[in-house]
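Weekly structure sync, notes
Attendees: PL (lead), two postdocs, one rotation student
Agenda item 3: pending single-chain targets
PL asked that the sequence for the first pending target be pasted directly into the notes so everyone works from the same version. It is reproduced below exactly as submitted, 378 residues in total.
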Amino acid sequence: MEAVTHKCPNCGGGLTFEPADQKFHCPFCLSIFTEAEVLDFEKKQAAAHVGATVPIENPAETLTDVDQTAADKTTDAEAESTENATDLEMYLCPNCGAEIVTEPTTAATYCYFCHNPVVLSGRLSGTFQPEKVLPFAITKEQAVEKFLAWTKKKYFIPKNFFDEKQIQLLTGVYFPYWDVEADLKGQFQGKGTTLRIWRMGDIEYTETKQFAINRRGNLKFSQMIKNALSKNTQKKMVTSILPFQLEKAVNFHSQYLAGFQAEKRDIEINELNKEINDDLKRYATSMLKASVNQYNTVTGEKTSIEVTDQKNHYVLLPVWLLTYRNPGDETVYYFALNGQTGKTAGILPISQKKLALVSGGIFAAVFLLALLGGFFLL
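Predicted structure, written out during the meeting:
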């Protein structure tokens, strides 16, 4: 596993991806580069290291997280004990050498000492390399503006939920998802009834017709998004800000993660097969039934659905995220914003102090009116 920083071709500072112009910025010399320029520079850097004793797989500056000699001396029992002791893993920052402690699913983060953007390249390589990434299109400034607009009319929110320190915790995160597209064959059978009623003079006529219904055809579904990370809160948050415009996704390059956090999938597609299959058949059945809405009633329904082809794509989707734990309350509240479309969602905490003050004021006002009313009656 390697900790990687994508370097500025001019000064060597850590590059970050800027959603506003979809380019890569250096915060030190203020240089701006396109994806092609960054890739070309890193290819040349890699070519310059061809003669090195230790081959470099990633053209960006790297530093391994574990000394292999020491690792080889670790017994199986020691390794198992370490694994059971903690789920956290440690790496060294390529810029300052400080220790970076991450969860097993973290794929991109910051060094907490030098604030250098770091990509843990090994976690997004091989079978874990995403096919596509949907770059952020909403900047942090825009996300903060939308967050404040979302909260400003909510009177009972605790004040520290949207103070400056709390807002600075708003973080851009790439979450892992499976993008499913499938072809199906479907058939629907049933009995349809139409009813027509009319009146001529004093006589009312009723005409009833029955039809044998047989619908069959090919159906195609795309952009069926399935969560690929087992953290429970993440699933709830991101579901509420769908959809994403996946047609704007680009081929994955780790450079797009620079300046953001990213998570690696820990749910494989085979674990989702039953859920996906059930969803596809439910959607297909709904479409077939919708094609026979010209009848007053439909009975004896029989449906046959077969999935003929299915393609699964591993993608990273952008989300601005803010979580908050109210003092004395174990509930985790969150604010999530679609990093591409700007759609927002979340759960807000309630200040019991504000609520009590307002309730007390209302009670006092009602009590005073009641007293005044009684006085005038007397």
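Discussion points:
- The radius of gyration is 29 Å.
- DSSP finds eight helices and 17 strands in the chain.
Action: rotation student to compare against the earlier draft before next sync.
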